[in-house]
Each structure stands twice: as C-alpha cells, then as structure tokens.
Amino acid sequence: MLIWLALSCFLCVFIEARKLTPFDLDTSCETFTNHNTDYEQTLYKLWEAHSERINHPLMLNLQKLDKFYGYVHADEENLLHKYNSFDNVSSTILNDIYAELPFLNNNIDNLKKYKENAIYILIRNYELDDICETILNYVNRVVYPYYDFVFLNDKAFDPYFIEKTSHYILNRINKGSERLAKQLIRISYGLINNDIWDPLQNIDEYNPSLNLTRLKENWEQQEKDNVLYGGSRSYRNMCRYQSLGFYKHPLLNDYKYTMRMEPGVKYTCDFDPFLELRENTKYAFTIALLEYENTIPTLFDTYKEYPFLKYKQAELFKFIQGSDDGYNRCHFWTNFEIISLDWVRSVEYNNLMDYLDQKGGFYLERWGDAPLRTLAVVETLNVNEVQWYDIGYFHNPFSSCPGSYEVRKLRKCCCDAWDPENMDKIPNEDAPNYNVPLGLQDFSCLKEWWKFGEGKHFLFKDYDNLFT
C-alpha cells in the first residue's frame, strides 16, 4: 500500500523541469506520511545499488516506464500498473519489504559484496552427504547467506549432486527468505581440465626431470613410512591445484574474494565471511598449526633459494622462523581461508608458485597447499593484509572455539571452549567458569601469530551492528 502511495505522490509532482528519480517524494502531497519515508529512502538506496549492477531482489523487479522514470512492480499480474486502487496490491510485496528493511538500512553499502564474492568448493560427487550437511550448517550460521556458490570437480558433476546441493543452498524455512535466495544466489558447477588437474599425464611437458615410474615407487615408500597421503596421486593433484590453479578457473573470473568450504566442516558460531573482512585484507584464516615434517623435508630450503626472495625484510617472516633460520612448520590451515583473488592472480604470487612447482615437490615429496600458501603470504603480504577470524570452526580432527565468553555469547556459539582439541585451550587444564585461558595447544601456531602478526583481538569492530 505504501509503495502505491509513494508512486502516486511521485506522479503528482512529476511536472518539473528537472529529471526525477522514482524516489523524489513531495511531502506536500496529502498522501505523504512520515511512515513511508522509510520506503522512500530504502528504495532509493536500492536504486543506487541497482545502478551499480547489484540486482537485489528487493528492487522488486521495478521496471522502467520509458522517459518518465516511473517504476512499477512487475509481478505476474502487474498489479500496481493494472489497478488504480492500492487495496488490490499483494500483501506479499509489502511483507517482503518490512522483513528486509532493518538489514537494508544497516547494510545497503555492503550489498555489492554479495555479487563480488563467492563460496568456493573443490569436491567429488561421492562427498555429497558431507557437503549438504556443511551447507545446511552454513545457511544457519551466516546471517545473510546470499553469496554465490562455485563448485569445481575434476570429474563431471552428476545431476543428483547438482539437484541436492542447489536445494540445500536455496531452501529456507522462511518462504520470504527462500524467494530472496532463489533470486539472489548464483550457483555454478565447473569441470577442471584434466591436463590442468593432473600434469603427470604429460610429464615430459610438465617437468622433464621427473620419471613417473620412479615417482610411483617413491609414493609406495612414503606410504610405508606413514607419510600422510604419501601414496596418493590425487591428493597431490589437489594440493597443487589449490596452490596455483583454482583461481584461474573461468567460473571465478567475476569475483574478488572467495571463501573456501570443505565437505564435512562445521561452523559453530555466527559469522559473515566477507562483511567482516577489513578493507585491506588479502588473506584471512581461523586456525594455524604445525605441518607434518615428513611431508615437506626440502620445502623451506627450496623457498630460500627463490631468486626474488625478500622474506628477510618481510614483517611476517618471524611467524614461520624457527631456530637457526629454519622453518618452524607453522602454517595457516587452508581448509578455511578467505582469499583476495587479485592477490593470488598477481605476478608476485604466481612467480613464487611457478618456481616451487617446477622444483617437483608436490610429487617428489608431498607438499601441501597450506605451507605453500603460508610462504606466499610471508613473501608477498604485510601484516595488516592478513586477518584472523575468531570463530567456531571444526574440521576433523581439530576445532577452534573462541576463548572469550563475550565472544561466544555475541556470536551465539555452540562449540565447547573446553574441548581438548580446541586451539584456545591449555592442554590438561580444568576449565574455569567462563573464559578459557589462552595457553594454547602445542600443535597450535596462534600464539606465534598473536606475537608476530596482528596481535590478539576478539571481535570484528562492527560486530554488534552487523549481527544484532
């Protein structure tokens, strides 16, 4: 009803020399009330967002009526255009606006981020059950989960996988939210080129110094030596692709940031992966821990031979510096990471990755993407471009749960801060009433990050405004 009043008011003052937007209201009109100012201001902001190519569904499919700059709701019956009485306008339209006004008024400037950023998932068809569980958890933890999803696979996705994952992403308990999700979220399913996924198929072209027969013998020995995934060729392909391949896939061309999602993970606190990013952040993580030493025996020495090495001047080097200038094995756990795609597409990042790739460590040893990403952070970024997320997160066998009671309360966490696997928990110490002492597990590197990185903090500064 109020939209119709606003549009009627607009028409009564339209005869002016200047061009009007649909939201220029004349308060002298008898139909004008202070109450519809909320609609006028919100719709104006939506129009500004729309002009920036942010197609938020609460533009209500307003369509342009030639030169008069009038807009009508283009539902199936075109109600506002067809009828002269606002009594015939569907209440659904008004209810949708009422429901979304608080969010829009507080977050209109952030709407653009919904179209610039995406949830990225590298997955196989048989991991369907695990990813559906994770998506359902994500939808209930991210307050406004309208980000796009990009699924990548080295095999074609089967139709059932596509049907089920799309259903879990778009389905909502609230029908209004479900309509918004279906209009706002784009879901893409991409196939990775086989030559890119498995370069050993053309081993002479990839790296003439490698021999596939000797590699397989080496993998068998690593399996016997209990190197984690030491016998797996596909795991090595995955680590290599996550290090230097995923951001080149054409389905990610239009995005600025991605959050990596893995099947089977749990988010146990409320958060927003992109609205919480600081303006200059290029890399964000939640867990930092030690890498298995037998997977990377020569990685750090290889890195130090990089011809453009500048780590000695890098602010972040102390985070990974061990005794005798060696590697302390600290790395950011990449199964949860938020990445600036501009950063990983940069010349500096790719020069380093290409150099390490040509050394053959992904296949001669079992280099993982996490220590390589960490070296790239150290080599190319400053401390203020890296951000730690103090959220509840579980990926078997490790978990993260905020140690502060206030953080857990504000984020509505359901994680156990006293779980022995929690990164913030002192091993074998009895829990106090509310706050977990930050002694940290021996396998955690967060204490190194707080010492040499950004320091200890508890909350995104605008958390109250964002989630309450």
Automatic annotation (TrEMBL):
Cellular location(s): Membrane
InterPro entries: Glyco_trans_15, Nucleotide-diphossugar_trans
This protein's UniProt keywords: Glycosyltransferase, Signal, Signal-anchor, Transferase, Transmembrane
Origin: domain of life: Eukaryota
Signal peptide range: 1-17
Protein's UniProt name: Uncharacterized protein
CC terms in the record's Gene Ontology section: Golgi apparatus; membrane
Organism: Hanseniaspora guilliermondii
Family: Belongs to the glycosyltransferase 15 family.
